[in-house]
Every structure is written in structure tokens, then in C-alpha cells.
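Q: UDP-N-acetylmuramoyl-L-alanyl-D-glutamate--2,6-diaminopimelate ligase, please. Structure only.
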Amino acid sequence: MTTITPDPGNRDAGRPSLRDGAGAPGTLTAVPHADQSHPSPQGAPAATPGAPRPAHVRPAPLAELAGQLGIPAPQGPAAAVTGITHDSRAVRPGDVYAALPGARFHGADFAAQAAGLGAVAVLTDAAGEERAAATGLPVLTVPDPRAVMGELAATIYGRPGEQLLQIGITGTSGKTTTAYLIEGGLRAAGAKTGLIGTVESRIGDERIKSERTTPEATDLQALFAVMHERGVGSVAMEVSSHALRLGRVDGCVFDVAVFNNLSPEHMEFHSGMEDYFQAKAELFTKARSRAGVVNLDDEYGRRLAAGESEVPVTTFSAEGHPDADWRAADVEIGPFDSVFTILGPRGERVRAKAPLAGPFNVANALAAVVALVAAGIDPQTAADGVGAVPGVPGRLERVDAGQPYLAVVDYAHKTDAVESVLRALRKVCEGRIHAVLGCGGDRDTTKRAPMGAALARLADTAVLTSDNPRSEDPLAILAQMLQGAAEVPVHERGTVLLLEDRADAIAAAVARADARDIVLVLGKGHEQGQDINGVVRPFDDRQVLRGAVEAAQQRSLTTHRNDQG
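A: Structure for UDP-N-acetylmuramoyl-L-alanyl-D-glutamate--2,6-diaminopimelate ligase:
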């Protein structure tokens, strides 16, 4: 273990509306472990690979789908299509298998597997055509199958998104929290809801663990169809920049699109911040949405509001900017939540609560309320629903084992988010902050030094550790983080510890905690595995933190008894 100890220093289209016919409100139970799917009832059939599918689909003639693609109908017997998937393992009888080009393999390499599972046709490009045709299935050949896959899926499933009130959230930080808060507001308004995002997808009260922030287009349209089939009327959904650039939301037109903020992230995917912004801005085109809700406190949000959005926008400001349509006032930040007043464009005064700590969650809560108002919900009803959400998995999630200090897990995994969480907790911390953080492997390397510096500058104890190193050497990642920490002037930084093993790092932070301190574990949040050299082993920060706290309490109790004896 490496330790750096400082001087004491300074440690101190028409307006969308909520549609009728929804069911009764349900119960939102996001904490403590909402990212667990409900187990199947005893005797239920085994789960089928892939995303949920609707029980009833009107068969679509393959010739009609070829016509939609602008290509001749394949020769041979007429085929009826009842589904589509890009995953050869998830093919069901009646599917079109979308064989996409990949970095290492072409999807056409797996066309025989798809045929064996009952596929009735293959959608692919010229590179995959010969391999697909070798299966004997009809082949739909287009220049870019990914570019047409979303619209084709929407057609096959009967355009289910058109039957849902869709609210999409994009931005760098806060997408998950805002989506949960919007869903809570929708439920409070009487809607039967759906949720799609980083942690999970929800169909009413059923929960399905997510593989990515925004599902692939084939899975997304199937999920919409299941939601509609089960009576869901409204859905809150995270929309990533990858989803916009890779066509995952093709076939969707959101009733309300929300922009939270933008800061450096995914620079291994985007060529720079402008490219990143332009990807996000695609959500605010007429092809993607009908109305926008935009954060005026963010410089990129101001660009959207100033004319770079193709759709009408409503603005909000948690900082109280007078030019915003909706703004926060009288903000009172507490250790676990915040209360504030929302001022509206027609003199509205709405009492509101952000159910999670920190100024950034005031912004998330305000975004949620304004999005709900844009969808036609009464402002006070929206605010009450948002304020009643009991928490969001892995977002400032408390771990309470009876200890005399606060223990918290948060998903913050980029510099701005790490700084925001630490500054928010510093305002309510009566003691010291002991924080644990790692950086992911095979991802943006430029943020590692700044994240190490942020932790060293803003925490009293900065424990640098592994996140998901993936194929990279964990020590090489830590060296980059340590370089950033070492650049913080000695009088401005806390004690810096280096522990490669994440469980040991969490235990080290807990061991330093006294009454009124805060232990903060950052980076993985709701995640339940750690990817090391291609092997994902079970690892849940919440469980590991709880175990470390309980072990420390047991040691303290044993020591006390020995002293008394």
C-alpha cells in the first residue's frame, strides 16, 4: 500500500399530454436493490434468451418489409414475419435475423444458428449476403442494415411507441436519476409506467436487469410492444449518445426530450466535445422528438435553447436564472434531500423536494418536474410524485448497518460527477470524508488523472483502487490516477492510499471512519460485477461496504470486551 500524507492544510409538435386510460399508480421501490428482476413464479416456463417479446404480433409479409426497404421481394415461398433480433442466440420462430457487421465477427457468421432456431429471413449487407444465402433463407440485402433495423422493428411490432407517452432523457450526468424521478411523477399522476435505463427496465412492476443504457433497436421496439400489450401508457427512458449515433432509437419519436448537462465522457467513442454534443443534439431534431426540456445552467443547454434545437424547448434553471421558463428558488440543501420552490412562467409557485442529496439532484428533480409539466401533468402533482421517490439504485444510496457515520455508494465515474458528489457531501459532513474510487479499463484514459486529482483534493482520505480494469493492467490505471493526485499541492490534498483490491480499499476507508464522518464508495453504483481480464466476478459495492462496516463493528465490539475483561 502506498500512502501520501499532507500537512493539515485546508481540510475544512403541439404540446404533448399525458394520455388517458392508464391504470392505478403502483409502488416505486427503488432502494435498496431495485436492480434485481423479480423471480419467475414457481412452475413458470424457463426464460427465453433476449429481450421480452409481445405475446401477440400480427404477421407481416416479408414482401411488404422488402418494399419498406426499397428492395425487391426475395424469391421463394411467401414468409410471414413475427419478430426481429440482432442476436442469433435469441432468435424465435418467425424472426428476421439482422446480421450486422462487427469489430471482430460479422453477424452472418451466425446465420446458420439463427436458421436453426426458426428465422424466416436474414437482413444483412453485401459483405454478409453470401454467408446468409448459404442457409437457404431469403436474404434482405441493404447497404447499412443497422440504419434500417429500428424502423423495420417498429413496423414488425405494429409501431408500439406511438401508443406510449415517451419521455427521453439525455446528458452526461443525471440521466438515471431523472428517469426514476419522472417515472415516479408519472405514477403519481395515475399512469401505469415503463422505465428503460442503465440499471433496469420496468414493465409496470416487473423488473428486468439492463445490459446497456439504451437497448438495441430490435429489443427496444419489442419492449415497447410488451409495455403496450400489458397496459403501460407512459415510459421514461435514458437515451445515450451511443444510442443516437448507432440508431438504437430509430423508430422512436419522443413526446418530450430532456437535456440535463454535458461534460467530457466517452472520448474513446467521440472525436471531441463538439462531436459528443452533436450526438446529443440529435435527440432534439424533428425526427427524434416533438418538444424539448433544456437545462439553461449548462452551456450546451443554452446552445439548444438559442436555436440549435429543431423542436420547441422549455428551459429550466436550478441556479435560478431569470431567463429560464422554470427556475428553483429558496433552495434548502439537507444531508439526505433538498426542498425548494419552483417558479413557473405564469406565476406558478410549486413546493418541491429532491429526494436525493446535493445541488445536482435539485437540478435533476427540477428537470423531472418540468418534463412532466411539458407532458401535460399538473405541476404540483408532478412535484409531489417526484419528491415521493424513495431513492435510485446506486445513486447516493445509503448503507446503514447501525454505524455512527454515513456510508454511501454512488455511480459517479467521471470528473465532474465525482466533484459534485464530494462537494455536496462536504456541505453536510460534520467530520471527515473517506472516499474510494477507481477508473474503468478500455475506456477514456484522459479522465483518469483528473479523477485522481479531484478525489485527492476534495476528500480527507482518497483511496485509489480498481473499478472494472477489463483487459488493462490495474496498476497501470492506478498509476495514471496517482499522477493526477500527486499534482495536487500537498497542502490541498488529503491522505492518498493505493489499494488494487477494491474490497480491501473499501475496508481501508471504513477503518478510518469515526462518528460524524462519511464513507463514500464511487464509480460502480448499482453494478453487481467486476470485469477483470474478461472475467466478470460478483461484486456489489453496497454489499461489500455493508460487510466491511459490520466487520469493523464486530472488531470494535471484540476490542471493547477484551478491554473490559
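A: Brief note, in case it's useful. The radius of gyration is 25 Å.
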